[in-house]
Amino acid sequence: MVVLLDTTHQSEASALTEAADRKPSLASAGRRRLTEALLSIGVPEKQVRMRVSQLWRWIYVMGVTSFDAMTDVSKDLRRALEAQFTLDRLEIVSEQVSIDGTRKWLLRLPKRVHEAKAPEIECVYIPEEDRGTLCISSQVGCTLTCTFCHTGTQRLVRNLEADEIVGQILLARDRIGDWPGVTPPADGRLLPNTERKITNVVLMGMGEPLYNVDNVRDAMEVTADGEGLSVSKRRITLSTSGIVPEIVRWGRESGTMLAISLHAVHDDLRDVLVPINKKYPLADLLEACRNYPGLSNAKRITFEYVMLKGVNDSLADARALVRLLANIPAKINLIPFNPWPGSEYECSDWETIETFADVVNRAGYASPVRTPRGRDILAACGQLRSESVKLRAQDRRQTSSSSTQMGEA
Ligand code: SAH
Ligand code: SF4
User: Residue 349's CB: how many other CB atoms inside 10 A?
Assistant: First the structure.
């Protein structure tokens, strides 16, 4: 069952975005952009640092969406900011809430002059008892063509800007009420019992983050900033298909956790599933992993392995996987394949996954199978964006008569 949410909210969001076409938004800006913004409206240089700190707290700790709410900022400065800038969020095209509490947003990015239409991305929130994970996108589409991934069938439209990456976090916090003094949504769905409702951020949405390194790095600096969003780098995970030259650099410059989309234990199969393997084969990839800065038993690399029926799911594969990772501090995540229309693969049978998982378990890796979440709203890996295009047409039909409805997916 899926809850389809308020069309009223969507039209408000559209209006805001039109406003953003006239004035740039400072929501999701980094310290440098805030500094430039303040200087541009005549704030004296010696005051700028202090003013940036004030704005930072209001934007990233309190989550305000208007300058007027910044009560310790002088009225004159608030007015000057209001005249030139907004704190508008990304536009929500649709929001879906799964029966298991998973939430998926389809978001529209500001249209650029040369773009025929405004690009859209997706972002997914997965609540559990003791954590809330936000899965964010780094690109619109992807240049890579992994054969089991739906995003891989969509050409790259563009890289996301740093503030469009951070913007997904602000938007999610708004929608789950994860700001001080804000009440969470009253739809009764699961939220974690943690103080903050987004405890973890994973770069596992659309796109290859290591092909947009600079923007992703700037965005993660804002995300990890201890005076702002404060998501510790130990709770941020970047997932990559294996862009070898960027892996160690990323570790050095960002210090986040790393996940590798491995999916095969031999080059001939990985060349097919993850074609970037032809450029950066397994031996090079694993060497880069071994050199990932700060690696220890407390800071392990996660290896993702999608379970494809009759392709990579034999006992021999399981044993080879364990051998391959033997000398790397690793976690193994077995992901049931999420089929999509036209995909040439099927998910392995549950029994096969269990047998595979047993081998991995016996080698000392705990709970390796990732439970599929948000299946009713197509919120799982590899199903993002393109599926929702179809769903939107269906949503519109279902929501045409009232603003909030319940419907079977
Ligand atoms: N481009 C990056 C991050 C985005 S993909 C990467 O490839 O790592 C996030 C994860 O979802 C990757 O592990 C990817 O292999 C996995 N994935 C993609 N399509 C999938 C599908 N249909 N079923 C299950 N997992 C999928
Ligand atoms: Fe791109 Fe990752 Fe999908 Fe491969 S799995 S096509 S790298 S998004």
Answer: 13
Report the alpha-carbon distance of residue 146 to residue 144 in Å, rounded.
6
- pLDDT of 185 reads 77
Q: Is pLDDT at 380 greater than 60 in this prediction?
A: yes
pTM of the complete model? 0.89
Q: Whose CA is nearest to atom 1 of ligand 1?
A: 208
Calculate how far, in angstroms, residue 280's C-alpha sits from the geometric centre of ligand 1.
Answer: 18
Give the number of the ligand closest to the Cα of residue 262: 1
Alpha-carbon gap, residue 244 to 368, rounded angstroms: 25
Tokens of 24: 């740039």
CA 146 to ligand 2 center in whole angstroms: 6
**Number of Cβ within a 10 Å radius of residue 233:** 17
Dump pLDDT digits (tens) for 9-29. 443 334 344 444 569 999 999
Query: Which residues lie below 8 Å from residue 295, measured CB to CB, with a gap of 6+?
Result: 289, 301, 328, 329
Say if CB 135 and CB 204 are below 8 A apart.
Answer: yes
For residue 72, the model assigns a pLDDT of 94
For the chain, which domains are there? Answer: 26-87 (1.10.150.530), 91-377 (3.20.20.70)
Is residue 140 lining ligand 2, measured as CB closer than 6 Å?
Answer: no
Contact in structure between 181 and 175 (CB atoms under 8 Å)? no
- Band (pLDDT 50/70/90 cuts) for residue 368 is confident
> How far, in Å, CA of 60 to CA of 225, rounded?
9
Please work out whether the CB of residue 202 comes within 6 Å of at least one atom of ligand 1. no
Check pocket membership of 208 for ligand 2, CB cut-off 6 A.
yes
Give the model confidence (pLDDT) of 54-83 as tens digits. 999 999 999 999 999 999 999 999 999 999
Cα atoms found within 13 Å of the Cα of residue 155, Cβ hemisphere only: 1
Distance 276 CA to ligand 1 centre (A): 14
CA distances from 198 to 20, 195, 371 (A): 26, 9, 19
367: left (phi over 0), alpha (psi -120 to 50) or beta: left
Residue 299, H or E segment:
none
Among 142, 154, 202, 340, the mutation site with the greatest number of ligand 2 atoms within 8 A of its Cβ is 142
Per-residue pLDDT, 382:
55
Residue 277 dihedral angles phi and psi, to the nearest 5°: -60, -25
